[in-house]
Amino acid sequence: MFKFTIRELLLLTLVVALAIGWWLDHRGYDAQTASLRFEAGMYRYLTKFMESEGYRLIWENDHNMLTILRPGESLSGEE
Fold first, then answer.
1. pTM above 0.70, yes or no
2. Of all helices (H) and strands (E), which one includes residue 69?
3. Is 10 strand, coil or helix?
4. How far is CA 23 from the centre of its chain?
5. The pLDDT of residue 63 is above 70
6. Which residues have C-beta within 8 Å of that of residue 69, sequence separation ≥ 6?
7. For residues 16 and 76, what is the distance between their CA atoms, to the nearest angstrom?
8. What are the DSSP calls for 11-79, one per residue?
9. pLDDT tens for residues 39-61?
């Protein structure tokens, strides 16, 4: 029969644990990516719609802040 030392069993346990951990971590990426693509599509659609209605959208701080101006409205200090 096979004889395994404690050292070999611990090494096998470590390899299996790392493989399972990697799999659990990466299995959610497909769902997360699909969700982010859907949200990006919705933002693009809403942006195009609002601009077609005459609103002006100004993204600031690397797209972390959005200013929406009504038709004919301008920012203070802007002509």
1. no
2. strand 65-69
3. helix
4. 19
5. no
6. 55, 56, 57, 58, 75
7. 61
8. HHHHHHHHHHHHHHHHTTHHHHHHHHHHHHHHHHHHHHHHHHTT-EEEEETTTTEEEEE-TT---TT--
9. 888 888 988 999 999 998 888 87
